[in-house]
Amino acid sequence: MATSSSSQPFSTESYFQTQKPPAGLEEKSEKMREFVEKWKAVDGKKVVLVTSGGTTVPLESNTVRFLDNFSAGTRGATSAEYFLSQGYAVIFLHRLHSLRPFSRHYSHSLNPFLDLLSIQDSSPTSSSASGSGSSSTINVSPEYTKTLLPILKQYHETIKLGSLLSIEFQTVNDYLWLLKSVTESMSSLNRYGMFYLAAAVSDFFLPEEKVAEHKIQSNKGTLSLEMDQVPKVLKPLVQEWTPEGYIVSFKLETDQALLIPKSRAALSRYGHQLVIGNDLHRRKFEVVFVERYLDQSSNGNGKGKGDDRLKGTITPPIIESAQQNGSDVDLNSANAQLKKEEYKETWLRLDQLKNGDTANGKGKNGEVEIEELIIKELVDRHQRWIDAKQ
Ligand code: PMT
Q1: Which of 184, 258, 314, 347 has the CA that lies 20 to 30 A from 289?
Q2: pLDDT digits (tens, 9 = 90+) for 74-130
Q3: Do residues 1 and 217 make contact, with C-beta atoms less than 8 angstroms apart?
């Protein structure tokens, strides 16, 4: 199949005007809206949207083949658990069948849950274990109870509180519509809403009119595809859909040298608060937080001179040290210096924990997970972002 390229790339606006909303959008949107309203009524409650897993791009409408983006959903599912333990209400927008909070500890490939179980047969005949009316009981083998118990407790607590809402997407079109919809609901949370965009979103898609209806036949020889670019929705998300939200995006690279420049470029293009850079092969051990310093001449609403959408809560070192010493600060000269060192990078590494370890270690075998460190840092930053508005 060969398709011709659109003369004009899709803008976010033209995308939503031309691409149909997915089935079930209204129902899912309503669930997310109700969830947000429920928690908005609780004073000081913070709500985070965690996006997780990779999006697909179907090549046929009766889909046999599709293009996929890499992500098992580990980052998102693990992070969602740590947000919950920090008191957040969590909307978990995730790829169908990718990892989910709590159950991720017992994924079928890494830790199949059947292996945790043992059968205790109290009937006189051993055949009762498989038959109906059996008096057999199924137990968690004692060696697994210790690790399962805290997970199960947190899971039950979460269900009781109703603090986790899981919503599924599959295609990049599902993802974009759902993201827009949930962001519109969450914008009413103002600064109490956080967006943690860990999903791996396709950069390319096939517009509806270019998608083959039936399975593409192989007897025609080679397959040529020309795909359109997915509009970068981060821009309207930051600048229009939720101007007060605390927004964290991820940058995945395979060349470590590109991590910081690409993260900086994303901050500069979209104007949000934080990019978390991660290298594909080192993402479970280290990440880098890339942020912009707050221009001190801005008016506190993120409106700085020459940059009307600069958001940030990080005080530049020159001002921080003057404040600590109780001396006056010349904002003009501070900002002049700021132009030279606009960005701040903070590396988080698991090996930093060896001295003065304060992490809980809720991983599969009690090991510390990098997401625990990430979420602790984010909770502090989000609180500062909220406080800066008071
Ligand atoms: O799940 P794991 O296996 O643990 O893997 C986790 C991860 C490596 C996938 C995750 O940590 C990660 O890096 N996710 C983002 C990867 C990515 O697709 O980056 P990107 O450069 O395409 O997008 C950057 C940001 O813009 C992302 O936050 C994305 O959600 C957002 N985006 C991208 C494209 C688009 N059209 N709209 C968007 O909002």
Answers
A1: 184
A2: 999 999 999 999 999 999 999 999 999 999 999 888 888 899 999 988 766 555 445
A3: no
User: Interior CA angle at 197 toward 201 and 69, to 5°?
Assistant: 20
pLDDT band at 1 (very low <50, low <70, confident <90, very high): very low
How many Å lie between the centroid of ligand 1 and the Cα of residue 171?
A: 14
* Residue 233 in contact with ligand 1 by CB distance below 6 A: yes
Residue 147 lies in a domain: yes
pLDDT (0 to 100) of residue 384 = 93
Q: Say yes or no: CB of residue 232 within 6 Å of ligand 1.
A: yes
**Domain that residue 146 falls in:** 12-118+133-280
- Percentage above 90 pLDDT, the chain: 68
Query: Does 85 reside within a domain?
Result: yes
CB 50 within 8 A of CB 86: no
**Number of compact structural domains in the chain:** 1
Assigned domain for 217 exists = yes
User: If you average pLDDT over every residue of the chain, what do you get?
Assistant: 87
Q: Is 197 in the pocket of ligand 1 (CB under 6 A)?
A: yes
Give residue 243's pLDDT: 92
Q: How many Å apart are CA 193 and CA 384, to the nearest integer? A: 13
CATH number at residue 101: 3.40.50.10300
Question: Is the model's pLDDT at 66 over the cut of 60?
Answer: yes
Residue 35 lies in a domain: yes
